[in-house]
Design brief:
It is a single chain. This protein is of the alpha/beta class. The protein is built from 13 helices and ten strands. The chain folds into two domains: 223 residues, Rossmann fold (3-Layer(aba) Sandwich); 80 residues, no CATH class. Helix content is 47%, strand content 9%. The protein has a six-stranded mixed β-sheet with strand order 5-4-3-6-8-7. Strands 1-2 form a two-stranded antiparallel sheet. Strands 9-10 form a two-stranded antiparallel ribbon. It binds iron/sulfur cluster and zinc ion.
């Protein structure tokens, strides 16, 4: 005896992971889309006429996001100018293939596409970075570089906002990880639906309350064209453990994911807790709470053959010590060497004449 959809007379094809409701395909699509619309409207994510870049990786989250954003923009007349923005990290056998999916999505959704690459922005691909640093900490480099790459791509496109496919599971995982690491600064802002208002281009997460399992179901039942292979350099063990832990909790109580997000939303930081003060990077102008942003420190380490310079908590201090030692050596060795960046002359501190990424 087929189970009936709880919203209409049709036969149910799925049990909703979020609340266990039995739904037919059409009712599931309708509920999924209207919940995302509700998130967008109730959080005032966009203004009419805004140019919005959809961060597109070809994976399930961003593919569903592109599909749903386009659908809702037309259905509810948001009046947004939508574009796809992708980052090519330079990972052979992974990103090159997933970007092919994005290119097909561009045709399917008839949206303009811009791809920015680590190679052109930083002079390094992830393949080359992994060759130098191995498979430990590679995601630190990749994550920091991607964050800036998206912003720089968005600046090139002149967009007012970026939307990302971060879903409820991702956010709940991040809350757990920040609690486990005692990272108060990140804990305070990691559940915010829009970030970056304080400096970089604002980023919003229309899937903040959308379960990963439902995104997969939506992509499956809509037969969307997405790429599902894992990154070949994906050793992110810590997030992996947080994910497994969360999935275990979810299997006992599905509302765990939303409950953790609500807990994150309700957390407030005591007034006397010191939080980083946002300024701008002296070298590249990107927002940073240190003199140099994390990307510039990591890049500096790579270009000097000292990739560990940017890893760990004392990164800025490591770099300052390194620069001071080098300055001393330069003074001893000769005059007229390349500027070390710690003097006040006008020479820009970009090592090895790698391409700079100022625009
Ligand atoms: Fe980059 Fe790590 Fe993600 Fe691979 S798994 S794309 S290396 S952050
Ligand atoms: Zn910088």
């Amino acid at each position: 005896m087929p189970v009936k959809c709880c919203k209409c007379d049709g036969n149910a094809v799925l049990k909703r992971p979020k609340n266990g409701e039995a739904l037919c395909r059409q009712c599931f699509f309708s509920i999924f889309e209207s919940e995302v619309h509700h998130t967008i409207v109730s959080n005032k994510l966009f203004k009419t006429g805004e140019k919005v870049a959809i961060a597109a990786s070809g994976g399930k989250d961003s593919t569903v996001l592109a599909h749903v954003m386009k659908t809702l923009n037309e259905r509810h007349k948001y009046g947004l100018e939508l574009l796809l923005l992708s980052v090519d990290e330079g990972i052979t056998g992974y990103r090159d293939d997933s970007l092919e999916t994005v290119k097909r999505n561009q045709q399917q959704y008839e949206l303009p596409l811009k791809i920015v690459s680590y190679e052109e922005l930083y002079g390094w691909t992830m393949d080359k970075i992994v060759q130098q640093i191995g498979l430990k900490n590679n995601c630190t480099f990749c994550g920091v570089f991607r964050r800036q790459a998206l912003d720089r791509g968005a600046m090139l496109l002149g967009v007012e906002k970026i939307v990302t496919g971060h879903n409820a599971d991702d956010i709940a995982e991040t809350v757990l990880m920040n609690i486990l690491r005692g990272d108060i600064a990140r804990l305070q802002r990691c559940t915010a639906i829009t970030t970056g208002i304080e400096g970089s281009i604002p980023r919003s997460k229309p899937f903040k309350y959308t379960y990963e399992k439902e995104i997969v179901m939506y992509a499956y039942f809509k037969k969307l064209d997405y790429f599902s292979t894992e990154c070949i350099y994906s050793p992110n063990a810590y997030r992996g453990h947080a994910r497994t832990y969360l999935k275990d909790l979810e299997s006992i109580r599905p509302s765990t994911i939303i409950d953790i997000i609500h807990s994150g939303d309700s957390l407030s930081v005591k007034g006397d807790v010191k939080l980083p003060v946002q300024g701008t990077c002296l070298r590249c102008g990107y927002i940073s709470s240190q003199e140099l942003c994390k990307a510039c420190i990591l890049l500096e380490g790579l270009n000097r053959g000292l990739p560990r310079l940017g890893i760990g908590k004392a990164t800025a201090a490591n770099l300052q010590t390194h620069i001071a030692k080098q300055k001393l050596k330069q003074a001893e060795d000769s005059e007229g060497e390349k500027c070390s960046g710690s003097c006040s002359c006008k020479t820009k501190f970009t090592t090895n004449d790698k391409p700079t990424y100022d625009f």
